[in-house]
User: Which sequence fits this backbone?
C-alpha cells in the first residue's frame, strides 16, 4: 500500500487518446438506458454513457440512493470510457423486491448478473460510499471478474468505530437545529403522498454534513431524489435491511478486515481529507488491500469527485492507465 496526497501526484490531461483495457459492453438495446434483469429476475434500471475505451461499472451509495446521485459529477469519465451505471434493487427506478430480498448478498448477485448480461469478461468497479463496500463484497466472491477497484469515500472495513465517528461528525457540522429537522424529515418521507420535496430538503441537509464546506456542498450536482415515489419512501427501509444483512454482531456492526488479503487486483482508495468518515478508515482499507494505493484529496469531503474534480479525475485516469 502506498499513500500520497494530490500535492505529490503528477496531474495528467483528460484529453489524451483512449487506451482500452477491455471490450465495450454489448448494449441491451439501441438506447443508452433501459432495464435488465438482476438476480431472481428483479428489474434493474441502467444508464450507459461514453462512446469509446474500456468499461467502468459505477456503484452508487446508500444503500437506497440512486445512480443520479453520482452520475452528473462523474460525467468526465465518459470522455475516455464507457461508463455503466445502474440503480441497485429497491433504489432509483429499479424494482422494489420483497423485503427478504433486500440484502447485500442479493446485490452482489445483481452485479454478477449485470456483468453477464453486458458480456463483460472482467470489470473495473468504481464504488462510492456504500458502493465501495458492495464492490469489495463482489470482489471477494468473484475475484477473477474484477480488473481494478476504485473506492471513493468507501464504506469502511468495520462498522466500529468508524461508523459512529462518521455520523457524529455530520451531526456536529449541521448543528442541533438542522439535525432536528433532518430527523423530522426521516419520519415524514415514508408516508408522504409526494415524497420529493421532503427528500430534496433532506438531501440538502445531508450534503451539508458530508461536504468539506458549504461551498463544496454547492458543487455536488447529483440528484439523491431521482427515483420512483415508492423507492423514495422506502429509502430508510432499504438502508436498514441491507446493513442488517452484513451485520456480524448483535450491535449491527461488521468486520471485513480478514477477507481482504486474498484480493490481488489493483485498487485505488480515494478519500477526502475533510470527509466526516475518518481518514483512519481509508488508511485501514488501503493497508488491508495488497495492491492498493491511497490518495488523499485536500479540501474535499465525502464527494471528492464533485468537490475537487481537478484533483480527483487526474488521479483516477492515472490509475486506470496503470500508473
Assistant:
Amino acid at each position: 500500500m502506498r499513500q500520497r496526497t494530490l500535492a505529490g501526484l503528477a496531474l495528467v490531461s483528460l484529453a489524451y487518446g483512449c487506451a482500452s483495457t477491455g471490450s465495450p459492453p454489448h448494449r441491451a438495446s439501441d438506447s443508452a438506458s433501459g432495464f435488465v434483469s438482476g438476480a431472481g429476475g428483479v428489474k434493474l434500471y441502467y444508464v450507459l454513457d461514453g462512446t469509446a475505451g474500456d468499461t467502468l461499472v459505477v456503484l452508487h451509495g446508500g444503500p437506497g440512493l440512486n445512480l443520479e446521485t453520482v452520475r452528473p459529477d462523474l460525467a468526465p469519465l465518459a470522455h475516455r470510457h464507457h461508463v455503466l451505471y445502474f440503480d441497485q434493487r429497491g433504489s432509483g427506478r429499479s424494482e422494489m423486491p420483497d423485503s427478504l430480498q433486500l440484502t447485500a448478498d442479493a446485490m452482489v448477485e445483481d452485479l454478477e448478473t449485470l456483468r453477464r448480461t453486458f458480456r463483460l469478461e472482467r470489470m473495473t468497479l468504481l464504488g462510492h460510499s456504500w458502493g465501495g463496500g458492495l464492490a469489495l463484497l463482489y470482489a471477494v466472491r468473484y475475484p477473477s471478474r474484477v480488473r481494478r477497484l476504485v473506492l471513493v469515500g468507501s464504506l469502511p472495513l468495520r462498522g466500529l468505530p468508524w461508523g459512529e465517528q462518521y455520523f457524529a461528525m455530520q451531526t456536529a457540522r449541521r448543528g442541533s437545529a438542522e439535525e432536528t429537522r433532518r430527523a423530522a424529515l426521516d419520519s415524514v418521507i415514508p408516508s408522504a403522498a409526494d415524497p420529493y420535496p421532503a427528500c430534496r430538503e433532506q438531501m440538502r441537509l445531508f450534503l451539508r454534513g458530508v461536504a468539506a464546506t458549504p461551498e463544496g456542498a454547492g458543487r455536488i450536482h447529483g440528484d439523491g431524489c431521482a427515483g420512483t415515489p415508492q423507492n423514495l419512501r422506502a429509502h430508510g427501509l432499504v438502508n436498514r435491511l441491507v446493513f442488517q444483512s452484513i451485520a456480524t454482531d448483535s450491535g449491527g456492526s461488521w468486520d471485513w478486515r480478514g477477507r481482504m488479503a486474498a484480493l490481488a487486483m489493483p485498487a485505488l482508495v480515494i478519500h477526502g481529507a475533510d470527509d466526516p468518515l475518518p481518514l483512519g478508515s481509508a488508511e485501514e482499507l488501503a493497508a488491508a488491500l495488497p495492491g492498493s494505493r491511497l490518495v488523499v484529496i485536500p479540501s474535499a469531503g465525502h464527494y471528492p469527485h464533485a468537490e475537487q474534480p481537478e484533483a480527483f479525475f487526474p488521479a483516477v485516469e492515472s490509475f486506470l492507465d496503470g500508473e
In short: Residues 63 and 240 are 8 Å apart (CA to CA).
